[in-house]
Amino acid sequence: MSNLSVKVRFAPSPTGELHIGGVRTALFNWLFAKNQGGKFYLRIEDTDAERSKEKYIDQILESLEWLGLHWDQPLFYQSQRLDDYKSRSKDLLNTGRVYRCFCTKDDLQSARDAGHYIYPGTCRNLTDDAIKVRLNQGQNFTFRFRVLEGETIYKDLIYGQIHVDHKELDDFIVVRSDGSPTYNYVNVIDDHDMGITHVIRGEDHVSNTPKQILIYKALGYDEPTFAHLPMILGHDKKRLSKRHGAPGVQNFRDEGYLPESLINYLALLGWNPGTEEEILSPNELIEKFDLAQVQKKGAVWDEKKLHWVSGQHVMNKSTGFLLDAIREIHPDWGKGSDISFLISILELLKVRAKSLTEFIRQSEYFFYAPKEYDRAGLKKWWKNESVNERITAFLEHMDKVPNWRKEDLETSFKSFAESIEMGLGKIIMPVRMAVCGSPNGPSIFDILELLGRDTTIGRIETALEKLPN
């Protein structure tokens, strides 16, 4: 399906790192644009001069590029459009759709104390003479939008038809007393000037939409189609935040996640392809994406599901790709070892690793003998000197292994366990602790074959000297 008229945008504010909720919004906009053959624009909402930082702009751009969410040029900056906002506010003032409000913070607080929870319209009908007197006195003022009686009705592509009675709205501010424009005001002007046809954003903006529609109409602009995405929730069903363990995008990159795995997981937060498929490439996501499949209720962040999705993408990668990717983030990994040895390690760990850094962490014992041993593992598998006696006897038994191959090693382990009438685990686990320092990992027979006879025997002998104490 192709619709070249479709134009969407992602509009982050550079006041902090790009977070997961923002990425999901960017992703859904990008997928919709690509699916429709349209355009995906990026707009930096940097009118907050004090909080907007260049470093956050750089981080946003780098994160989107790393994820593959490439935007169509040009890149828009709100800070470069202040004159446009100013000229439109004059137009609205001339038509009477906005008016000057001279109320101070104390005035507004007094009104709230008196029970007026929305602006009571104190300055709504000031005469020209009254306005002139206040201007001559140098009183500060804001521009407020004049909300007329009636209701706003619009169709949301996700939530359906929404009715808002204007009694629920006050005369909201569009330009602050320092001359800076407000969010709702600049969004309308930017989206109109950029030709945006669909505004796809989080459901926390639902309350902004009727105000923005009123501004569209007051300026004589055609309003876009709106779609509000469900929030991403933490395990406590509250809006996701860093306390739930969902860090910024940069952290995922630093941890060695594959960008397509993060894209895949985020796409499934609030959307599904209408099938049982869960592991999808970016191109497959583009092909299948449909806003009609976006659910209304919030999607819960599930780190275990993320790890599973990520692990599936890792397993689908060629070992050569993984080696190159690991060397990009850790150039010295496996330095001095044969490529065949490194490839064998990666093949063993592929079914267990969810990220590139996990390959690095989990492979350490292939290159270095354990400096220390996992305490919980020792408590369970190397409790006392009786283990030393058993493993010493096993070392003598291992001298009879004809070829140091995993098949022969497995046979040797089993025959020794049977000879002393013990479960196989009571041989495997102490040996694993001695060789790897940890009770976890791939098949011990695969590990020992890769390490070789001399390295294996040497590590077991060292453990016998150090353990159980």
Task: Give a brief description.
The protein has helices at residues 20-36, 54-67, 82-94, 105-113, 128-136, 183-193, 209-219, 249-254, 259-267, 282-288, 303-316, 319-329, 339-349, 356-362, 364-367, 375-381, 385-398, 406-419, 425-436, 444-451, 453-466; strands at 7-10, 39-44, 76-77, 98-101, 142-145, 151-156, 160-165, 173-175, 198-202, 225-229, 232-233, 299-300. It has 469 residues and is mainly α.
Give the averaged pLDDT, no decimals: 94
Report the principal-axis shape.
elongated
Beta strand %: 5-15%
The main β sheet shows up as: 3 strands, parallel
Helix content: 40-55%
Q: How many strands? A: 12
Which structural class do the helices and strands define? mainly alpha
| Gyration radius, in Å | 32 Å
Low-confidence stretches: none
Number of helices: 21
Distance separating the two termini = 69 Å
The largest beta-sheet arranges its strands as 1-2-3
